[in-house]
Specification:
Helix content is 47%, strand content 18%. It contains 20 helices and 18 strands. Helix 5 runs antiparallel to helix 6 and helix 18 runs antiparallel to helix 20. It is globular.
Length: 649
């Protein structure tokens, strides 16, 4: 479909791409991967035609359309949301105007046999066919479906785009690109400004889209679900894998191992040859052999080991000072901005050591509740911070709040106190700011580097309640994994505001959903929550379908074979998700039972029997165990029912 031929890009003496060639086929869904600075965004820009290579070319089929979403895009503020999104169908409007003009001209003419008259008829037929192909008759429904899928409300449609934040305006541009249904979609970090539900909608949209897709993303779950091909950029070259990201990681590890073995063998050969030359260089009897070895050495094509990021982020939160049993208690907390109610009656208690997630669509109040906890805004109800609670807060825009004119070293030096000031260089080295990197000004840092620098400031003082608001934005996949391990090992209490499913998986034991003016508690991990939400959505969908069938006759029925196939696929997917839920619940039950057994050993001693805190903890764990057993029983019943349903098909 598209051929990239002998592509080279050079910036001064730095070679970004060196004679790269590959083909993008129709219906490919490609993930571009590589370390920061490898050239992923540059590759998208060149294919989109917004940047020229030093040498080489990108060849497209005639009339191919391209949609490109960069990480940052200028947006206009002169129209309403709906009117701005309608711009995606400007071609349809031009065709409609032309059709009207042709019909008016045909009405005035009577030279029915002339070549000009027949040419107008052909143009009219072609224009009508083109509108039919691109869905001109149904574009309003497409606009509504896409805007709702990306998280907008119907009440937003008539709002001026100037009222939306930068993240929401990027969604508007994404909506316009998707609605154009281009032959090739180029997406640079499309999930950065989306919540979990919108990311899932985008996954389903791309899966059903006829467009070829090439994307850059640090959301592992997203690229695994969307892509079927992975192109790695490394040391100016590419490595093409016809698999998704997870499988690519396995194959890449094998390739690097083989490459390293070949490199080490060649280095040994080179060393042996050089030693022979040096030893016998001045011996006349060995001159022929020496010259032969010199020529042999010159002909060796040196094996180049792929670029592997040897620097390793060393992230570990300081031990948490002991807080009270309940670091946070909310009772009837609510928040309004003028006449607009964000949420109301948020009531829950956070126990010491718990790790929870705040999820929901943007604008539903996740960050607002965090600000209430931090005392940065007023609120209704009662919000109590527990005894000896020390909060560490990483704000969503923390990296942007850094002073761009200050160096990395001075940024940390300004907030460090006491003995820690003597260890600033060591700390910076642990965060991959070693050597000259510590003298860089903040303004030249990438988004990921700024996020790491902001994280250092958070680590300088021990805390026991971590509140992390979208901490993974701008972090690459490997750095996110290090952060995840650090949060998992942290012995304090954690509130995570995030849309990254892979990051939240295995970290949190409760999910608080923000939506419809409410804050709803869900026991279990992020995929437990998503599974229940999907089941609820499916039930609601079936209910609506039944209501529609009662009110009007069916226009078209899906064939029985296809319906059975689709149903079987859905049941199999549901069984897999339920099995994961059951397995996770069993692991949690086992951990709780182990904790109870440990406490009961202590309680069996005279000293432990009189320990009130231990008795209270024993009771709380038993209640938690009962709740988790109920959840396990519920999921097991659903799993058995689904397996039975599949067996009966």
């Amino acid at each position: 479909m598209i051929s990239v031929d002998a592509l080279s890009v050079e910036f001064g003496v730095t070679v970004l791409f060196d004679n790269i060639s590959y083909v993008i086929n129709k219906r490919d869904r490609i993930a571009l991967v590589g370390r920061n600075g490898a050239g992923k965004s540059t590759m998208l820009k060149i294919i989109a035609g917004v940047q020229k290579p030093t040498r080489g070319a990108v060849n497209y089929p005639k009339d191919m359309t391209v949609g490109y979403l960069p990480q940052q895009m200028p947006v206009t503020d002169t129209k309403t949301l709906y009117a701005e999104t309608e711009e995606a169908f400007s071609d349809i409007f031009r065709l409609q105007e032309r059709i009207t003009a042709i019909n008016e001209e045909l009405g005035r003419r009577d030279d029915y046999e002339s070549a000009e008259y027949h040419a107008l008829i052909d143009e009219l037929t072609s224009a009508n066919e083109r509108i039919s192909i691109i869905g001109g008759a149904n574009y309003q429904a497409e606009i509504e479906k896409t805007l709702l899928g990306l998280g907008f409300l119907r009440s937003d449609f008539d709002r001026p785009t100037s009222e939306f934040s930068g993240g929401w305006r990027m969604r508007i541009e994404l909506a316009k690109i998707l609605l154009k249904r281009p032959d090739l979609l180029l997406l640079d970090e499309p999930t950065n400004h989306l919540d979990i539900e919108s990311i899932q909608w985008l996954e389903e949209f791309l899966a059903s889209s006829g467009s070829t897709v090439m994307l850059v993303s640090h959301d592992r779950a997203f690229i695994d679900n969307v892509t079927n091909r992975t192109i790695e950029i490394s040391l100016g070259h590419i490595y093409d894998y016809k698999v998704n990201y997870s499988k690519y990681l396995e194959l890449r590890a094998e390739r690097l191992e083989q490459q390293m073995r070949a490199y080490e063998n060649q280095q040994k050969q080179i060393k042996d040859t050089e030693e022979f030359i040096e030893r016998f260089r001045y011996k006349a009897t060995k001159s022929v052999q020496v010259q032969s070895r010199i020529k042999q050495l010159a002909k060796i094509e040196r094996i180049e080991v792929d670029e592997v990021d040897r620097s390793r982020l060393n992230l570990k939160f300081p031990p948490a000072p002991r807080s009270g049993d309940y670091p946070l208690i909310l009772d009837g907390v609510g928040k309004c901005y003028g006449s607009r109610r964000i949420f109301s009656n948020a009531t829950f208690t956070l126990k010491r050591g718990e790790k929870i997630a705040f999820v929901g669509k943007n604008g539903e109040g996740k960050t607002t509740l965090v600000k209430c906890i931090m005392g940065q805004t007023d609120y209704e109800g009662t919000l109590k911070i527990g005894h000896n609670v020390k909060i560490g807060y990483y704000a969503q825009n923390q990296a942007q709040l850094l002073d761009g004119e200050v160096t990395v070293f001075d940024t940390v030096d300004r907030v460090a106190v006491g003995d820690i000031r003597t260890k600033i260089r060591d700390i910076l080295g642990a965060f991959m700011f070693g050597g000259e990197a510590s003298d860089k000004k903040v303004k030249v840092l990438s988004g990921g580097e700024r996020a790491r620098l902001a994280m250092i400031k958070l680590l300088l003082e021990p805390v026991n309640l971590l509140i992390l608001d979208e901490p993974t934005n701008h972090l690459d996949i490997s750095t996110k994994e290090v952060l995840k391990q650090a949060v998992a090992a942290f012995d304090g209490t954690v509130i995570l505001v995030s849309h990254d499913r892979e990051f939240l998986d295995g970290l949190v034991s409760k999910v608080y959903e923000f939506g419809g003016g409410k804050v709803t508690e869900h026991i279990g991990g992020i995929y437990d929550f998503l599974q229940r939400r999907k089941i609820d959505s499916l039930k609601e969908l079936e209910k609506k379908k039944a209501e529609q069938q009662d009110s009007k006759p069916a226009v078209r029925e899906i064939s029985d074979n296809k319906a059975d196939y689709l149903k079987r696929k859905e049941i199999q997917r549901r069984i897999k998700q339920l099995q994961n839920c059951v397995n996770d619940a069993e692991k949690r039950v086992q951990k709780i039972e182990e904790k109870i057994a440990e406490i009961e050993k202590v309680l069996a001693t005279p000293e432990g029997f009189s320990n009130i805190d231990l008795c209270q903890q024993h009771g709380e764990l038993n209640r938690e165990l009962s709740s988790m057993m109920d959840f396990w029983s519920e999921q097991t019943e659903k799993l058995e029912a689904a397996q039975k349903e599949l067996a009966e098909m």
